[in-house]
Amino acid sequence: MNQPLPRISVLSCSIVLFLLSYAGSELTRAEDLPRVPDGFSVERVTNSELTKYPMMAGFDNRGRLFIAESSGENTRAPQLIKEPKSMIRMLEDRDGDGRFDKSTVFADKLTLPMGALWHDGSLYVASPPNIWRLTDVDDDGVADERKIIVDSFGFSGNAASIHGCFRGPEGRLYWCDGRHGHEFKDKSGKVTSKGLAARIFSCKPDGSDIEVHCGGGMDNPVEIDFTPEGEMIGSVNILMTRPRVDCLVHWQEGGVYPHFEDCVEEFKRTGDLLGPITRFGHVAVSGMLRYRSTQFGPEYQGNIFTSIFNTHKVIRSQLVRNGATYETKEEDFLVSDDPDFHPTDVIEDADGSLLVINTGGWFRIGCPQSQISKPDIHGAIYRIRKTGTPELNDPYGLALDWSSLSPHRKIQLLNDTRPFVQQRAIEVLAEAGDLAVPRLAKVVSSPAGSFYNDTSKRNAVWTLTRIGTPKARAAIQRGFDSSETVQMTSAKSLGALRDRNSITGLVRLAKEGKPAVQRNAATALGRICEAGRRDGVSDADLETVVESLFHAMKTGSPDRTLEHALIYALIRIDHRDLVLAGLSDSSPAVRRAALIALDQMNSGNLTRELVTPLLDTDDPALQKEALTIIGEHEGWASETLNLLKTWLSEEALSEERAAVLRGFLIAQSADPEVQSLIAQSLTSSKTSNSAKGILLEVIQRSALKEFPVSWRTALEQTLKSASPDLQILVVRIAQTHDLPALSELLKSLALDSKQPANLRIESLSAVGPQMQAVDQSTFDFLVSRMNEEYPPLDRLAAARALSGLPQSADQLIQLSQQLDAPGPLALPVLLRAYAKSTNEEVGLALIKGLNGSSAATNLSADELASLLQKYPESVQKAATPLLKKLGVDLAQQKAHLESLKPLLTEGRIEEGRKIFFGKKAACAGCHTIEDLGGKVGPDLTRIGAIRTGTDLLEAIALPSASFARGYRSYLVVTDEGKIYTGVISRESTDTVYLRTADLSEVRIARDEIDMMKESPISIMPKGLEKRLTSQEIRDLLAYLQNRK
Q1: Which residues are 290's β-sheet partners?
Q2: Where is the Cytochrome c domain (predicted)?
């Protein structure tokens, strides 16, 4: 958040919406308040007359709290643009009792404002699609001037858009942008920047000099804050998927982060994608801050406090230095048992108390917890204090007459115990310009143990940074000889200023400093020597800089964060000749850094002849990088064949080597020599079964328009002679790709009663659509496999096979008499068998069978209605009561959940584990716990830490009531009229892969898609609570709640 600012009374405003006296009344009963640790107190400091749906907030220099407030409506972007209803609300505490008592609308008619930063007399707000500066010229409490300083950004209305603004210690404005794209134009209308990825941007306060700090494929970076050294920590949702990771990140300049590949490709990469420092799980993080005051005690100073929307809490994270970055230690700080308590921001007031914003129950769009909006449940603001702590005297420094303070006194205030006073001192001294430099220089260069501690020195450096003159820059360099924390600050400062005179000192820090110092020095050197912006930097300096970066790579085994900074600096410098020398260095780490830099820099001109010699190494990291780069260049693959043959002949491939091999072969699957290698290895006796499994996976995942003849021949041989496990993989390839040459062989397997049942069923799924008719014995075989004696996944496979067979009218009628047997997982799949018929008798038998099936409640009313459109009117009329029954009744859902809540107690954890991994519930068919289970649904390893028991109960009983992000079902209709429903498992530029309800993966060419939309029905079957006993449900819930 922005720096804490003062709270004082002001002149009455002309437009006052609400005045409220709190005297003699409590806003919330003590037992209804959230819980905080012993030694702390919490109270509610607003009511609904003051604010109803607060989201984010920040103080101004009078202590007024500016709140980004929602209208309480869930509205998509087009309507928000057309009819903006949200606002910036201003709250005041006129009597200084800590409770707000006056509310004014500062700015209305905004789309969805997500932040508030007061700076130099104006409020800076991110309200998509723009960054705004709002100014109250006549001081009446209402913004008179609204100016767009940066535009424009994409958004959908689900709050995963732009957030901010935030002020960096060097004086720049920052904001976070969700993964909805941006497009900037100059005054002539020329596009200057464009992209789809999420990013963290910065600019000068006037909107000029826009820079990208970092970016990637994450969904929603929310807020950032800065350590005393200027390190950026931020909260972000969906940094990773499967399992989903909402987290804190130490954002690195030039860093590239997961998870959407198309977005990642917009950036220069330095190796593996960077990751988080804290993994909260699937919780929906929101606003955060770094606590500056000492009022909570020294052990809290510098801690990160993060609001967690889903789990109704604020988490405290202690930052601990770990190499060039941080690790954290977490504990709950504020917890509410109210399921409609949704914290969205944490703000530090100048007195050291914390404000926590609860937005209430209105939010639904994109909410991973529920699809039910509850605008009648209003939000509120809570204040947390440390009990027994004396109040700060004049926490804002309002009693100080800044204009008459001596320069020495102002310097002293750089180390004041009041955070706001420190910041005010920085601003006042910066305004003095070069006149303040001599005294500030003295502070920076003062010896350890002197009057000026590290806080004074760091704040002096930031003051000099804002002054920015040559004299100020020279004074900052004195910090190179100070403590680690001051060295980091000085390096970051001079990098921000692109000060070429500091190169010598920064080179020394890059070589000799501790990892975090090395990282900041490397980043600074990359900025200063960046190609196109390094006027005045000599060739000798460039050579010294590159040598220092290579030196840091080969000494001390740099961690990934430091490695990124070193390589990114090389990429920025973009000097091919100097970096080229690194390819022949004795250190494999240097060779790898040079290889990545040359591949990514604009003038790298990397050739195959430069890369292939690097494969001759025992260093796995270098070998992997060389293979990755070769795999990205068409026509380079032949140089790798001997190495790959060696790997494929190994009895057991390591996980890392298997991943490299798989990725390389998929990337190079269009290369004829690679195709030949795959075919030969697949039929070779020297290739292990595990390696053959990888090769078959590569074939299945390839997106080639023409299937290689050599592969088809190899598949035929594998299908005839391999083990059943490999045969099934071949059959699944035939299901994904159109391979008519395998049809007869597949048919013979399918009809051979001596073959394993699962192989027969998979073969029927592959060849069934090509058959003219199905004989009765095969039909009876599949129907028998749907009996309850078989596990749900086996019944699902049988249903999948039956749905593709050309059944006669008599067979469909016979099948309709068995619709209770498949169960809720398989029935929606089996229903597809009736899409090929228009026979009235068949249709009526289907409706009769569905009415008698307890599993029919898992059907989609829309999909069933669509299927019946081709049937006669009599069938559609007969289906009317069923279709009405399948509609959603929210009141009925709520009552059903209430009736199940007693099952949240008295469960047995170990028995619940057996149920989860057992055949009756078949949870592990789709979900993973501790790397065991399927990958179709979310990973549930830590589900108990991020979901309440009620949430889990709703997910089981009403799986379509809410969707985990990344697991939304889609309905796809092809040009040929085929209908598919499933979760998008992966995508390429020309293909969409759906994981359907029958757990198969369907490959659909984009140019064959007629319509694609979100489906309201989850592929997770409804009705599990009806198929398990009450005790089994209790046990399963106990097991899931214990997964923390």
Answers
A1: 304
A2: 907-1044
Fold of the 897-1041 domain:
SH3 type barrels. (2.30.30)
Contact predicate 168/111, CB 8 Å: no
Domain ranges (residues) in the chain: 18-24+52-386, 400-493, 498-603, 772-887, 897-1041
CA gap 1041, 176 in Å, rounded: 34
Mean pLDDT of 1007-1018: 70
Tens digits of per-residue pLDDT, 809-859? 999 999 999 898 888 778 888 888 998 899 999 999 999 999 998 888 778
**Tens of pLDDT, residues 17-35:** 344 444 334 456 666 899 9
Could you please state the CATH topology (level 3) that the domain comprising 498-603 is classified under. Answer: Leucine-rich Repeat Variant (1.25.10)
Q: CA–CA separation, 961 vs 954, rounded Å? A: 8
Q: DSSP letter string over 361-376?
A: B---TT-SS-S--BTT
Q: Which two tokens stand for residue 307?
A: 């609001």
Closest CA to 252 of 542, 600, 495: 495
Report pLDDT digits (tens) over 67-97: 999 998 888 888 889 999 999 999 999 999 9
Q: How far apart are CA 400 and CA 425, in angstroms?
A: 11
User: Are 648 and 680 a contacting pair, CB within 8 Å?
Assistant: no
CB 747 within 8 A of CB 715: no
Hey, which residues does 288 pair with through a beta bridge?
306
Which residue's entry shows tokens 């006052």? Answer: 16
Please name which of 86, 71, 94 lies closest in space to residue 19, comparing C-alpha atoms: 94
Distance CA 468, CA 24 (A): 53
* Radius of gyration for the alpha carbons in the chain, expressed in angstroms and rounded: 32
Under CATH, what is the fold of the domain 18-24+52-386? Neuraminidase (2.120.10)
> With b meaning 16 or more CB within 10 Å and e meaning fewer, what string describes 702-741?
beeeebbebbbebbbebbeebeeebbbbbbbbbbbbebee
Worst-scoring range by mean pLDDT, 223-232, 303-312, 626-635, 985-994? 985-994
pLDDT digits (tens, 9 = 90+) for 354-374: 999 999 988 866 554 555 668
Neighbours of 481 (CB within 10 A): 14
Residues 6 or more apart from 225 whose CB is under 8 A from it? Answer: 1, 166, 232, 233, 234, 288, 289, 290, 304
930 forms bridges with which residues in the sheet? Answer: none
CA distance 647 to 633: 21
Contact 187, 128 (CB under 8 A): no
Name the phi and psi angles at 959, rounded to 5: -65, -20
DSSP for 45-81, please give it: ---TTT-SSEEEEEE-TTSPEEEEE--S----HHHHH
Same CATH fold, 897-1041 and 498-603? no
| Average pLDDT over every residue of 477-503 | 98
Residue 660 C-beta-side C-alpha neighbours within 13 Å? 22
Q: How far is CA 151 from CA 127, 147, 148, 786, in A?
A: 10, 11, 7, 58
Query: How many Cβ atoms are within 10 Å of 1036's Cβ, its own excluded?
Result: 28
pLDDT of residue 999: 65
Question: What pLDDT was estimated at residue 11?
Answer: 32
pTM above 0.90, yes or no: no
Model pLDDT for residues 104-156, shown as the tens digit of each residue: 999 999 999 999 999 999 999 999 999 999 999 999 999 999 999 999 998 88
Give the pLDDT score at 288: 98
pLDDT class of 795 with cuts at 50, 70, 90? confident
Tell me the average pLDDT of the chain: 89
The CB density around residue 130, as the number of other CB atoms within 10 Å, is: 18
pLDDT > 90 in the chain, percent: 59
Rounded alpha-carbon distances, angstroms, from residue 684 to 334, 357, 645: 61, 64, 11
